[in-house]
């Protein structure tokens, strides 16, 4: 089968690799209809996440079940399914408590809980930017979708970023009527903004410096804040009579940078501590890592000096981590079918898998007009 392979920093290509097959009775093999490039893939693409050369990338997958193992009874050949990026066993304590992102059995890496497709440190599983994908524990993991091809670009957001944006809002302790500030208008930040609107936020401020991404925030009735035009904290304070916001969502991660591109891993956390009110909450879904030799200063060892003193003094709360997709994806499917949610509003490109290397380059540069890329392996 053909698949997108990581060859080294800023070098990916589509190659022939061994077919995805049934390896365990509880597996399924999916024929991929749509697979997206994620901001998380860019950390690897830039050579910042310690991924092995030869890895097949891709954790935002959906498609049609091609084959099931003999221990798979619910999911059937021909079913249209969304594949959560978490690979979870369904029987450990974390899975039973609804935290599939911290599954205790699927990641063989010492000290790591939680596994994913085609991702550094997330286990030996190949990704889905390919014609086919092997899905472990298929009955537990797969979300069955209505048949046909309707809503394909909405449903494809159910594997990761719509649940992740929702999780960021949830972790912040959000309540209807709250004001929310979101750092980052990438796909995840925009999904958090969409969530906050659907769930009844009073105001939603979205911070970035790219006009195309900020425009998408305006289109869903959020207030764009361009941090290249001045301190984002001051801009939000000015817009709220000096009050600030009740909730903050971090949707950038440890590669947060200033307008000149210099990285400051603490920048967005400090901004949120400043702009969120006393007793407010912050949800961090942008990724932070325990080590990255290419990070400035002590952040290379995961030690990020942020304004913990003010955070404590204001009595704020913070939640962090990978999103447990299964906690939210069914509800979100219902919201899409009911016409309440339309996460496809961020899609800028739908292209064949063969054009992925070029798309990676554009998306990595955050080039104007490249807001979310969907790959079509069978096109
Ligand atoms: N927790 C999870 O489960 C999960 C799932 C998916 C993605 N992620 C992470 O979410 C983050 C965002 O991913 P994405 O797909 O939206 O892609 P992305 O990386 O393209 O989006 C990040 C955006 O942040 C902006 N940005 C950079 N510095 C900033 C600053 N100082 N202030 C405000 N904005 C700033 C960039 O301009 C960019 O538009 C990444 O770290 C990704 O790894 C986490
Ligand atoms: Zn993703
Ligand atoms: Zn588990």
From TrEMBL:
Names of the cofactor(s): Zn(2+)
Keyword tags: Metal-binding, NAD, Zinc
The Alcohol dehydrogenase-like N-terminal domain, residue ranges: 25-139
Alcohol dehydrogenase-like C-terminal domain ranges (all copies): 187-290
Signal peptide as annotated in the record: none
Domain of life: Bacteria
Family: Belongs to the zinc-containing alcohol dehydrogenase family.
Protein's name in the database: Glutathione-independent formaldehyde dehydrogenase
